[in-house]
């Protein structure tokens, strides 16, 4: 029943084979979506090479550099989508960053520059990407981002990223309200802790994972592919009545009181 054949999907945020974005890309591809993939460019081209080798089996029809802090990159990315595909059906936003020193210790010691950087990349980038995607979603579409429980509860060492995720979830609601009349749905998945390149910067991430394995109803955390399955559902017509929501894919941990 879950068929994305003929749908054009842009996936951001793949860094390596542990990335949640990689799990999402795999499941979108399995459902028949036509993939476009962005990567974060660097001077030596290491990220381009790494991501290109990883996604090669998925045969993406677009493979583009995109640094969301660079307006020209954003324009080039969506101009390429317009030129190659003509329209966009699915946008996957898997972008988050904070300085490592802001992901441990006292939250009150977060620097102004670190606070602004975390919110620019982790929160505002969704607003930016959605704004560029909206004119290309001429037949409606689905925008999906990734959040975490630290956006609604205080999680040790998550600090400024919790503020960024809270802003991200609020942005989901405002974007959903804006874009609903164009039949564009905007949702978020709140995934349980997974050991990724991004999460490794959070102090005590392994302790967080072990705690979830002990407390969550399923007595485990989740995998990238499980998040990918939920993402594929939310991007499909099976979820046509769902927008502005945060779906928890965390083995049930969010429901527990202690």
Automatic annotation (TrEMBL):
CDD domains xrefs: ENR_SDR (cd05372)
Single GO MF descriptor: enoyl-[acyl-carrier-protein] reductase (NADH) activity
EC number(s) stated in the UniProt entry for this protein: 1.3.1.9
Active-site residues, record numbering mapped to chain: 148, 158
Pathway membership, UniProt: Lipid metabolism; fatty acid biosynthesis
Record-listed NAD(+) binding positions: 13, 19-20, 95, 165, 194-198
Oxidoreductase in keyword set: yes
Highest taxon above the source species: Bacteria
Residues binding substrate, per UniProt: 98
Catalytic activity: a 2,3-saturated acyl-[ACP] + NAD(+) = a (2E)-enoyl-[ACP] + NADH + H(+)
Protein name as catalogued: Enoyl-[acyl-carrier-protein] reductase [NADH]
Keywords: Fatty acid biosynthesis, Fatty acid metabolism, Lipid biosynthesis, Lipid metabolism, NAD, Oxidoreductase
Membership in a protein family: Belongs to the short-chain dehydrogenases/reductases (SDR) family. FabI subfamily.
GO BP annotations listed: fatty acid biosynthetic process
Residue ranges that the Swiss-Prot or TrEMBL entry lists as coiled coil: none
């Amino acid at each position: 029943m879950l068929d994305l054949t003929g749908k054009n999907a842009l996936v951001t945020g793949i860094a390596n084979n542990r990335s949640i974005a990689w799990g999402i890309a795999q499941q979108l591809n399995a459902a028949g979506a036509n993939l476009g993939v962005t990567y974060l460019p660097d001077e030596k081209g290491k990220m381009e090479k790494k991501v290109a080798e990883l996604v090669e089996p998925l045969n993406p029809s677009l493979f583009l550099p995109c640094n969301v802090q660079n307006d020209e990159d954003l324009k080039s990315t969506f101009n390429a989508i317009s030129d190659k595909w003509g329209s966009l059906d699915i946008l996957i936003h898997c972008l988050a960053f904070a300085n490592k020193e802001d992901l441990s210790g006292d939250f009150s010691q977060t620097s102004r520059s670190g606070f602004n950087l975390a919110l620019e990349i982790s929160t505002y980038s969704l607003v930016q990407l959605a704004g560029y995607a909206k004119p290309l979603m001429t037949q409606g579409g689905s925008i999906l981002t990734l959040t975490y429980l630290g956006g609604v509860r205080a999680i040790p060492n998550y600090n400024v990223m919790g503020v960024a995720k809270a802003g991200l979830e609020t942005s989901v609601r405002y974007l959903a309200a804006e874009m609903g009349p164009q039949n564009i749905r905007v949702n978020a998945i709140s995934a349980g802790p997974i050991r990724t390149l991004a999460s490794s910067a959070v102090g005590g991430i392994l302790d967080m994972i072990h705690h979830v394995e002990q407390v969550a109803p399923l007595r485990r955390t989740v995998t990238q592919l499980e998040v990918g399955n939920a993402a594929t559902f939310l991007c499909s017509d099976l979820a046509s009545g769902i927008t502005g929501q945060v779906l928890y894919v965390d083995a049930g941990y969010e429901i527990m009181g202690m």
